[in-house]
Amino acid sequence: MKRTFLKKVVTLFLALFVIAGSFGIIANAAQEELGGVNGYLIPTDINLSAPKTEYAFYGDSAYLYFMLFSMGKADSFYNIEIFSKSDYSSDSAVVSYVSEYGKKGNMPLRLNWPFKANPSGTYYGRCYTTIIKGEEEVIDTSTIYKFTIHLNRIGKSEVPLVSVANSKKGVVVKWDKLATATKYRIYRKTKGASSWSKVADVNGNTTSYTDTKVKSGTQYSYTVKAFDKLYSSLYDKTGLKTIYLSTPTLTAPKASTSVYPVVKWSQVAGCNGYYIYRKGGSLSDSNKWKRIATVKNPKTHSYTDKTATSADWEYSYTVRAYYVEKVKKYNKNNKPYYENVVHLSSYDSKGATYNCATAPILKTATSAYGGIQITWLDTNTAKKKFYIYRKAAGETKWTTVGSSTTPSFIDKKVSNGVTYTYTVRTATATNLSAFDKKGISTKYVLTPTLKKLTIASNGTTTLTWSSVPGAKGYVIYKSTNGNKWAKLATIKNAKTVTYKDTAAKASGSTYSYTVRAYNGSYYSSYVKSGLSTMYLTAPKVTAKNDYSNEQGSSVKLTWNSVTGAKSYRIYRKTASDKSWSVIADNFTGRTYYDKTAKSGAKYYYQ
């Protein structure tokens, strides 16, 4: 009887095991679609000894199937437990199930185990029957069935690749994080290579990697594999592809003879050409980079932006290298066609800044003391310098004659009587402005040299100066007591170099004179300080003999006060003297006693 029953139990176990295996195959096939694997565990009963069994599961959850063998015992429970530790300690329990009270017979059970709360690793399970005896619950040790589960939550997953892009340092690979990954491994292969090569390992919190060991102009494909302790993920077998192009290095802007910004950069190996970007100036959204040009020759390393017409603006430029790859694709009818895929280098996000400038507005060109003075109006706000250009009458080319940091310049290398034309350009740190091509002209007329100024007792002043070759005449200017110069007279005879001012003078007033030469409509400069003299009227002197006890025998001289006089000089002579002699100087009074006069002699005083 027992033998027949045992034979039936063994036959049932084997049948269930075969069925479990077939179910396991179906479940494994469904894993790719559903993300889970169904496991089938066949526990033993009191009369059947079964070995320890190992199972492997993938995904986020799985159904575990059990067949309950209670042998018809009343007052019993069926228990299922899974632990993270091999000692089956209660603090490591991750699954705990107790059947309904008093279940009897062979009863299938489906238990769902969600893996999301558990990392990959090995788990330890057991199932057994608990029998109630009186007030106690006793484990039927003969029913304990142990099994091991290897949980691999990453093995069926593929690391989602996000992008590959060129940067200044190399190729940047990005991917999406897998929840249980503790490490990622980056692989690379070049065009034509049949297998992937390991590039680097990074930790599980990282989702990007920069491959710095790359060569410009080379095509690279990248893929990523994840690891979760003992297990590894699947990977994108195609990977993401890019052609690495190094970042063009912008040359620091320098002063250029071009009116327009000239952008320069280093050559990039393996590219087809360059894209030029600009921001600033009068562009809308001027703070954003906008592509303004394409340089199709990879050997060309400069670009002149002739569209930068907004003067007195800062323009910033940057450059990207590009490579156009023809990629074969297929349409809905499976017919091949080619599509251009553009690969771009990274770029200098700061860029190179150029200051543009407006052309100065010419104001005057006149003869100055020692040369020709040019003035102009400048509206630029950037730090600047000015360059002055000149051409003499009959010349066709401009010649640089000097520079200035202020809107004025004196050209001292000029010749009297020659007509010169001038123009000016503004220079910023990076560019020269345009210029007035017509320019402004003047004939240089030498400034007369003032030689002498005299004044007679009657107030007549006489001014003399040097003649100026080529002059047609002279203009005399006069200033009284430091007031503005006023035109006094025009001398139309170029040979005349003397002028007498007979106009009445006021005692104590200072009179200044200066001269300008002219040649047609062109005038020389003038000595701004001029020559000056003060006019003083002559005192009216009274002389008489004085025999007072105070002074003794002498000639007493008295005179009136003279406006503007600080002191007086007293002169004397006899009838036989040819010239006056000074008998007192710096005398501040208005009464003087000549004690040296001899009795009987006749004297004259002034």
Q: How would you characterize this protein structure?
A:
The protein is mainly beta and 606 residues long. Helix content is 5%, strand content 48%. The protein has 1 helix and 44 strands. A 5-stranded mixed beta sheet has the order 2-8-7-4-5, with no helix packed on it. Strands 11, 12, 14, 15 and 16 form a 5-stranded antiparallel beta sheet that branches. Strands 18, 19, 21, 22 and 23 form a 5-stranded antiparallel beta sheet that branches. The longest helix has 33 residues, at 2-34. The radius of gyration is 56 Å and the shape is elongated. Residues 1-50 have low confidence and may be disordered.
Number of helices: 1
Distance between the termini: 178 Å
Supply the helix-strand structural class: mainly beta
Low-confidence stretches: 1-50
Radius of gyration over all CA atoms, rounded? 56 Å
* Arrangement of strands in the largest sheet: 2-8-7-4-5
Average predicted local confidence, pLDDT: 86
How much of the sequence lies in strands comes to over 45%
Record field, number of beta strands: 44
Bulk shape: elongated
Q: What kind of sheet is the major sheet?
A: 5 strands, mixed
Helix content: under 10%
Question: Descriptors for this entry?
Answer:
mainly beta, 606 residues, disordered N terminus, 5-stranded antiparallel sheet, 5-stranded mixed sheet
Helices and strands, with pairings:
Elements: H1 2-34, E1 39-41, E2 53-58, E3 61-69, E4 76-83, E5 93-98, E6 106-114, E7 121-133, E8 136-152, E9 161-166, E10 171-175, E11 183-190, E12 197-203, E13 208-211, E14 219-228, E15 231-232, E16 240-243, E17 262-264, E18 273-280, E19 290-295, E20 302-304, E21 314-330, E22 336-344, E23 352-355, E24 361-368, E25 371-377, E26 385-392, E27 399-404, E28 408-411, E29 419-427, E30 440-443, E31 450-455, E32 461-465, E33 473-480, E34 486-491, E35 498-501, E36 509-519, E37 522-523, E38 531-535, E39 541-546, E40 554-559, E41 568-574, E42 581-587, E43 591-594, E44 603-605
Parallel strand pairs: 1-3, 2-8
Antiparallel strand pairs: 3-6, 4-5, 4-7, 7-8, 9-10, 10-13, 11-12, 11-14, 14-15, 14-16, 17-20, 18-19, 18-21, 21-22, 21-23, 24-25, 25-28, 26-27, 26-29, 29-30, 31-32, 32-35, 33-34, 33-36, 36-37, 36-38, 39-40, 40-43, 41-42, 41-44
